[in-house]
């Protein structure tokens, strides 16, 4: 097969630009400063896509020949002589870096401005090669080289409009117009609810009992974790070896992070810049950089981690081996020191504070305190039936028992200071802390309801019905549109 000179040049340019872009997803700092200055409400996604609250989207174009010593200033636009704040369709910076605004053509298709309006220096650039462009985007033929290896999803692809407005819920026992008056700290927030037997993530406003949207996964959910100021969700489905990154505002699955093993549990570090993931079938904990949404490290550890929990100071992880019941700590510094602590059966939850590991035994109905250095039990406290979850706040452990009781344990003097009986029956499962408040949400896997609990007053303020049975719940600190 003959290859003409024009095609050879095109292939070579794509190769060179693709190689350059492999490390250039992060936008230049001077460009970011200009964008944030002129468009303070702009959001820059980890793959470079820029969006505004009004729905405006800009695609970054990396230059093939970037100018040195650039200041990040805008040097030309289309229409001409516009400021970045006026949202022009083409923006060229002094480094040859450019932005193309996503617009709609006469047929209602999403595209960019006519090719005649785009300078040649922009057409020789390339889009970041890990960027998810808006599904169905139409690119003019003479600009296809800018795509490199990018694949554009069709308009009806699974990545388009991931939040469906037709929730599959049973409303037979609920009035369609039922409304909830949430407590102050829950106003304008959203619940993410999964059930035991559904692939759906139910998106429920806190002033409602029924889902407003549903997000359908490929299998039953293992976890759903909001990250980066609740802009994204990290979602894992049973049987899959990757974590999907859902962009909530753009309503797309923006990325898949492949671990090669099935993710099972996730926790965030103290400043929420990293996520630690335990998998089902490897002796490792995986580290995800949440700024770049990329796998940054795989830490080999002893055993197969389960019940992973972050220490109170954020400097270590504690976990149990799913096969043996051995409990280990893992230092989160350059040493990654991995220490055996104790052996316990049927552990449902762990906590680490200072030199002590706190563990719940679901079958023995006890809280046990283990000294990390002595590697031995130093205290045991009987609890209500089937302790399943606990949260460490200040000097107290709030322990949730499946028998619908909260036992409050004082860490200073190792004493059980109070018990709170939850109203109604069922099987309590999880505590969800509402940030910047005294509120926890308490889920129940048998009754369609959750409790609103004030842990300072040690009382239940509200019992809220639900259209779905709640297996797991996460809280978004914003209202989904």
Give an overview of the whole structure.
The chain has 481 residues and is mainly beta. It has a domain at 5-147. The chain has helices spanning 5-21, 29-38, 120-123; strands at residues 43-44, 50-51, 57-61, 74-78, 90-93, 98-101, 103-104, 110-111, 163-164, 190-194, 200-205, 213-216, 221-227, 232-237, 242-247, 252-258, 263-268, 274-279, 284-289, 294-300, 305-310, 316-321, 326-331, 338-343, 347-353, 356-361, 366-371, 376-382, 387-393, 396-401, 405-410, 415-421, 428-433, 439-444, 449-454, 459-465, 472-476. A six-stranded antiparallel beta sheet has the order 1-2-3-6-5-4, covered by helices on one side. Strands 9-12-11-10-37 form a five-stranded antiparallel beta sheet, with no helix packed on it. The longest helix has 17 residues, at 5-21. The termini are far apart. Residues 1-24 have low confidence and may be disordered.
Proportion of β residues?
35-45%
Uncertain spans:
1-24
**How helical, in percent, are the residues?**
under 10%
Overall, the morphology is elongated
How many angstroms separate the termini?
A: 53 Å
- Oligomeric assembly: single chain
Count the helices. How many?
3
How confident is the prediction overall: mean pLDDT? 89
Number of strands: 37
The largest β sheet comes out as: 6 strands, antiparallel
Output the strand order for the largest sheet: 1-2-3-6-5-4
Structural class: mainly beta
**Radius of gyration computed on alpha carbons:** 26 Å
